[in-house]
From TrEMBL:
InterPro entries, A to Z: Metallo-depent_PP-like, PGAP5/Cdc1/Ted1, Ted1_MPase_dom
Organism: Lachancea meyersii CBS 8951
Alphabetized UniProt keyword annotations: Membrane, Transmembrane, Transmembrane helix
GO cellular component, one term: endoplasmic reticulum
BP GO terms, sorted: GPI anchor biosynthetic process
Segments passing through the bilayer: 9-30, 456-476
Protein name: LAME_0A02300g1_1
Amino acid sequence: MLKPWLSRFTVLVTVLAVIGNIYIFTYPSLYPQRCSWRCANQKVAIDALDSLSLVEKTAYYARRYWEDVRQQFGTAKVVDRSSRKDMPADVHLLALGDPQIKGVWKNTPYLSRLDTYGNDYYLGHIFAMMKRRLRPSHVAVMGDLFSSQWISDSEFYNRTMRYTSRIFQRDTSWLEKTRQESHDADGLYAVDWTTFADDLGERLQKQPKDFEFGYNDVQTWDPAKEDYLFINLTGNHDIGYSGDVTYQHMARFHELFGKDNYWIEYGRDTEHPWRIVVLNSMLLEGPALQQQLVDKTWEFLYRLFEQRFDGSTVLLTHVPFYKKPGLCADSELFRYYPSDYEREPYKQNLLRSQNHLSEDATRRVLNLIFDNNKPGIILTGHDHEGCETVYNKDAKAKWTASKAVSSTDFHVREITVRSMMGEFDGNAGLVTGHYNPRTKQWEWSFSLCPFSVQHVWWFTKVVTILSGLLLSVMVFL
Ligand SMILES: *[C@@H]1O[C@H](CO)[C@@H](O)[C@H](O)[C@H]1NC(C)=O
Ligand SMILES: *[C@@H]1O[C@H](CO)[C@@H](O)[C@H](O)[C@H]1NC(C)=O
């Protein structure tokens, strides 16, 4: 009685599982161009697509998909970043927007726990797919790694563990070691922030101030283990806005994720220098809780300026630059703690949140970084919707944001990378840098590779498990 019904159901579930898995493991092939680095000889999409009939269109997309799948899984897979020996390799930077992973607490319902657990692997799937397909030279997570700045050291550590192992499939032995070196009486991670604060105070006092911000030609932090460079950015949910950021916030970020402000110069003494600038945009404005932390960020920018770098710049920072309302989803918004704030009186009047940098901070930062008028690109996070804007510099070194280029002097594009969260379709941003020997300039391009809402991934996992169970039941019936 049961058997025919069951076997039909099993076939259905198995077919769904196969389709689901094919989809989640080949999704970038549906958008081969957006999900590939820009090559100098890349084919342009055919303009005449609109005039095709539905059947012809379907055939076109199917062929495009199939060709890409064949390329990905075939033997002829080559990732060659440099086309000519005497030219620098293309820069292939994977930019991932705001993962914002949540925590699990004692009273978190089981369904939300499962959701949080699955979400880690959903994000991990995106990263694994992109890494396999694209072999990036750089990977940058655009800040807001976690969902809240108001968490204990132990929770911060636990999320770092998940971030490192589940999402980015990286070695965690150093994290274990860090916990053994700094923990509380219960063995839980606790950062030694007083030493951090004392050290910062001392360094700020020295003349010149004693900071090391710069690197040269770093291809990876760990040559024995990996061939790409991993960059973690600070976001307001990791350390807070400047009215919230404590030494404790900064100390643990430094210990587990590295510096918040630094530059890496590549090929400084060649014809084709370029650099990465990582900027902590939470600590530029105020009123701040710890002015010293803001002072340090400005010190960083002055030092960067003094480098008199003559190449192209890729600026990575979390909070977008100032722009008029209507250009992106978020408009300018500054909130301050009220002057009678009872809950935490020491925060009264301090900066509580911001959507953009202020107009003044924008001008100062851009003039310090893009002073040499060499082409570059700005990548930001924060506004989960994603956006593209152009910053036009006029003769008086004033900057105006617009949708199109309006300056004849100099402009730089700001890409707000759409979030990799499921609600925003699990995007990955692809930045290609190509040195053009004719113009002797770097050229930067960006594309967004979308996956789909987390439910599709979940559905695939569920039907896969279910079909496994059903198939084994069928064997015994
Ligand atoms: C972090 O993880 C450890 C080990 O699983 C656990 O004992 C601890 O309670 C966690 N911390 C928090 C704040 O939940
Ligand atoms: C950034 O975070 C990853 C994952 O936790 C870690 O492996 C890496 O060492 C961090 N980068 C730096 C410069 O500390």
